[in-house]
Amino acid sequence: MRILAVDDDPVFLMLLEHVLTAIGYKDLRTVESGAEAMTLLRDPRQKFDCLLLDIDMPGMTGIELCRRVRALQDYHDTPVVMITAMKSLDFVEPAFRAGANDYVHKPIDELEMRTRLRMVGDLIEERRRRASVESRFSTDHGLPVINVRFDEPVALSEAGSVIDYLALENYALTLGRLRLYGHSVLGFKVTNAESIFCSTDGIGYIDTMANVASVIDGALKSCNHLIAHAGRGEFVAMISQRTDLDVDLLQDEIDLAMDRYAHLHEALGIPLPDVTVGRILHTGFFTRTSVSSLFKEARQSVRDVAMVR
After folding, report:
1. Whether pLDDT at 172 is above 70
2. What pLDDT, on a 0 to 100 scale, did the predictor assign at position 88?
3. Confidence class of residue 105 from pLDDT cuts 50, 70 and 90?
4. Out of 133, 174, 226, 280, which could bridge 147 as a Cys pair, Cβ 3.0 to 4.6 Å?
5. CA–CA separation, 47 and 229 (whole Å)
6. What contacts 238, CB < 8 A, 6 or more positions away?
7. Are 100 and 167 in contact (CB under 8 A)?
8. What is the reported pTM?
9. Identical fold between 3-120 and 165-308
């Protein structure tokens, strides 16, 4: 794994290099500003597998740098881990909105960094495997292709509040139990997602799920929220307040918005997505519900609603 680390503190970069070397990551390049990083990233002779970005830098912040990185075709889905010494979590959500995949605190803990980079490595290997399959198919048939599994939480980027599922889990983990108590979680399900998946190719399926994400994003516009596609046509939304939205009204708004795509889907021969809204969930103040369990509960909730709808 070739890593680029960006931080305006040269002493921290030396310490980071020491930690990374100790856990087996020796191919590291460091720079001290966002401008230097962008120069490297635009150089076709350079290629990095993972970016470690300090959030609080003078001039171009790490969040702005992350946003610019995501605009580069070669780094659209490269894993980005944000690093910061700031204690406030006010900037965490903007970092994930900008495209970050994960987040760690200074001072760097060796075990935490090892765990984060192991997850990054797994993500890189999965994306390399998919790219290899897509490349072979494209070479054999001369057609663009995206290799997608139905149960895979494929990344969608068309809507402003949509982030990767892993990133949403990582964001929720940064909140801690107290802050998580102040959030609401809501599941959505495209009940005919498997029919859509079978009726089109990977590009068509991702485009359709992206349209659904945009509709959900619009329906939740009155709330500060983040959305992720969890696979199998299911979505999880985190709302940054304890809310009791009228789920029936939300369902009606989504149905109405999806109807606007009816003519397009008819022309393409792809079933129009049938989206179901689940129940709004909250964590208890004294409970120790894990983030993964909370998200699973949200997905199960919408499955239950879909069965009786």
Report:
1. yes
2. 61
3. confident
4. 133
5. 28
6. 168, 171, 172, 183, 184, 185, 225, 226, 227
7. yes
8. 0.84
9. no
